[in-house]
């Protein structure tokens, strides 16, 4: 029996793309972006996005597998399933970021300086 392939971890690619996009936005606004600051804020934004959406992804996985109706992570103690839900969110964010995702990060950096 062939093991199902999990979702690849696209976070490194997402971080790299986000840093590039945010740096461009900051330069357009006249800011000399510090890559370390951008990277830190990008990672925070990704973590917040994942936290906001991963339970929805977890529910979708469980519902698709016919194993649950509405669930939360407190009811699931399968770390692999929780990690898969998080990876799916990151993959979705990488492939189709919300329209204002990069702009919000850039504005957050500008507001903090």
Basic shape: elongated
**E-strand count:** 0
User: What is the helix tally?
Assistant: 4
- How much beta, percentage-wise? under 5%
Order of helices and strands: HHHH
* Helical residues, percent: 55-70%
Number of spatially distinct domains: 1
Major pleated sheet: none
Question: What oligomeric arrangement do these chains adopt?
Answer: single chain
User: Rounded to an integer, what's the Rg over CA atoms?
Assistant: 17 Å
Let me know the average pLDDT.
84
User: Ends: how far apart?
Assistant: 55 Å
Q: Find the structural class using helix and strand composition.
A: mainly alpha
Unreliably modeled segments: none
Description of the structure:
The mean pLDDT is about 85. The chain has about 110 residues and is an all-alpha fold. It is built from four helices and no strands. The protein has one domain.
Quick rundown:
This protein has 113 residues and is mainly α. It has helices spanning 11-28, 35-64, 79-95, 101-112. The longest helix has 30 residues, at 35-64.
Keywords:
113 residues, mainly alpha, 68% helix
